[in-house]
Amino acid sequence: MNQESPATSMAHSTASVKKQMPSKENLILALIQVENISELVKDNQYYGFMSSHLLPIKFELERQLSLLKNK
Questions:
Q1: What is the DSSP letter of 1?
Q2: What are the strands, taking DSSP E only, across the chain?
Q3: Distances 15 to 21, 25, 31, 53, 61 between C-alpha atoms, Å
Q4: Above 70 in pLDDT, residue 17?
Q5: Which residue segment(s) compose the domain that 32 sits in?
Q6: Would you say residue 63 lies in a domain?
Q7: Structural domain contains residue 54
Q8: Residue 46 or 11, more confident
Q9: Measured between alpha carbons, how far is 12 from 5 in angstroms, rounded to an integer?
Q10: Which residues, at least 6 apart from 57, have a Cβ–Cβ distance to it below 8 Å?
Q11: pTM exceeds 0.70 for this model
Q12: How many domains is the chain partitioned into structurally?
């Protein structure tokens, strides 16, 4: 029996989707989520580690948002 995990199944389905820039609203919502996560883990002893992984995501979302604003 060869069952795929949900993550594997999701990866296969998203790989076949045509690549396109997310909407401005989606990027803004994603930025808000990253900020919320950062706020939620602020008191965690591993905040520095988590923050070092969240910041690149935040910067990439901001970069993509700026590309949409420049159109």
A1: -
A2: none
A3: 15, 22, 23, 23, 20
A4: no
A5: 22-69
A6: yes
A7: yes
A8: 46
A9: 11
A10: 34
A11: no
A12: 1
pLDDT of residue 55: 97
Look up residue 65 and give its two tokens. 């948002």
What confidence score (pLDDT) does residue 60 get?
97
3, part of any domain: no
Q: How far apart are CA 7 and CA 16, in angstroms?
A: 15
Residue-wise pLDDT for 32-67, tens only, equals 999 999 999 999 999 999 999 999 999 999 999 999
Q: Which residue has the tokens 């604003």?
A: 69
14 in a structural domain? no
User: How many other C-beta atoms are found inside a 10 Å radius of the C-beta of residue 61?
Assistant: 20
Q: What is the pLDDT of residue 69?
A: 84
Instruction: Give the H or E element holding residue 57.
Output: helix 47-69
